């Protein structure tokens, strides 16, 4: 679809209500080519035909002319919070409504903390991840190679170093899957404020505001804490000759993962490519199947552990 200027609209109708979904066009999981046919038309038939999830219908209300806030119905969970205030101090008030609220996406920017320093630490432009972690990865490779050669007395350690580094990359894919499935997607009890705080700050906010580009990659500060923890755990099992090289491989895997994650939300991969499949897969995780499809950079561990999503065949390819 040709890019439209900011004054243009994309009006549709659903259940006698009028919506302007212009701001959603580039984020639509089904691509712009599936949507552009319905400009100025009723979308009730295609919404049913393509089996849209509850999250899709909830998100649609974001674009209702007159605003969601005027629709104070039981289905409108946004009535429980004030989007003009920091969200961290409000989420525990949701109680048993929290998980339903956090898995009902909206198209807004989210402020997490009132304190500007804390808020700054949670906002991360995508380029900050490689800018910080690639130099650290290179440093670990250099120091790790020197340590490996010194301890093993290997005068030509290149092949061994590459193998150990690759071990670290593979290890990251397991960590990525494990963190996403068992930590990020732990369903908090509505009666546990600590678990709600933890879930929301670690991953829940991303599912609530999936289009907020400042919250698509992991902030460096918590990432450093996780890296330090993994380093300490690895030191219990790995010899000193391998430790830094495995960690370097893990960091390389993490950077790749975070860049892929950002691209899956904002990129436009071409049909029949690896990233085209991953983008469809990740969209299904976000908007239809929160309890499956945990792989981001790869779907291999989903297949191994039985959490893989099956994508339906399409008559025509998606164009984002």
UniProtKB/TrEMBL annotation:
Residues the entry annotates as binding heme: 28, 52
Binding site for Zn(2+): 180, 185, 203, 206-207, 261, 265, 282, 285-286
GO MF, any single term: iron ion binding
Pathway: Lipid metabolism; Sphingolipid metabolism
Free-text cofactor note: Binds 2 Zn(2+) ions per subunit that likely form a catalytic dimetal center.
UniProt GO cellular component terms: endoplasmic reticulum membrane
Organism of derivation: Psylliodes chrysocephalus
Keywords linked to the UniProt accession: Endoplasmic reticulum, Fatty acid biosynthesis, Fatty acid metabolism, Heme, Iron, Lipid biosynthesis, Lipid metabolism, Membrane, Metal-binding, Oxidoreductase, Transmembrane, Transmembrane helix, Zinc
Protein name from the UniProt record: Fatty acid 2-hydroxylase
The keyword Zinc appears for this protein: yes
EC number, as in UniProt: 1.-.-.-
């Amino acid at each position: 679809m040709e890019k439209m200027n900011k004054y243009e609209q994309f009006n549709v109708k659903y259940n006698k209500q009028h919506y302007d979904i212009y701001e959603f066009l580039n984020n639509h999981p089904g691509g712009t080519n599936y949507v552009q046919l319905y400009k100025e038309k009723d979308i009730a038939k295609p919404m049913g035909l393509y089996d849209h999830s509850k999250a899709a219908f909830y998100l649609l209300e974001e674009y209702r002319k007159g605003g969601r806030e005027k629709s104070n119905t039981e289905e409108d969970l946004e009535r429980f919070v004030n989007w003009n205030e920091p969200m961290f101090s409000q989420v525990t008030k949701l109680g048993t409504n929290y998980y339903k609220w956090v898995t009902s996406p909206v198209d807004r920017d989210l402020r997490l903390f009132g304190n500007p320093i804390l808020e700054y630490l949670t906002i991360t432009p995508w380029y900050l991840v490689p800018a910080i972690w690639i130099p650290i990865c290179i440093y670990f490779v250099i120091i790790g190679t020197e340590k490996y050669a010194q301890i093993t007395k290997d005068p030509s350690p290149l092949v061994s170093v590459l193998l150990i580094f690759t071990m670290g990359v593979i290890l990251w894919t397991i960590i990525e899957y494990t963190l996403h499935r068992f930590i990020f997607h732990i369903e908090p009890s509505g009666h546990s404020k600590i678990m709600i705080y933890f879930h929301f700050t670690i991953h829940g906010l991303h599912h609530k505001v999936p289009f907020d580009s400042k919250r698509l990659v992991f902030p460096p500060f918590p990432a450093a804490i996780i890296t330090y923890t993994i380093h300490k755990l690895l030191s219990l099992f790995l010899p000193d000759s391998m430790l830094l090289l495995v960690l370097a491989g893990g960091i390389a895997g993490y950077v790749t993962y975070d860049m892929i994650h950002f691209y899956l939300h904002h990129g436009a991969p071409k049909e029949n490519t690896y990233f085209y499949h991953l983008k469809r897969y990740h969209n299904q995780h976000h908007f239809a199947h929160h309890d499956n499809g945990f792989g981001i950079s790869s779907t291999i561990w989903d297949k191994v552990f039985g959490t893989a999503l099956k994508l339906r065949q399409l008559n025509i390819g998606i164009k984002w």
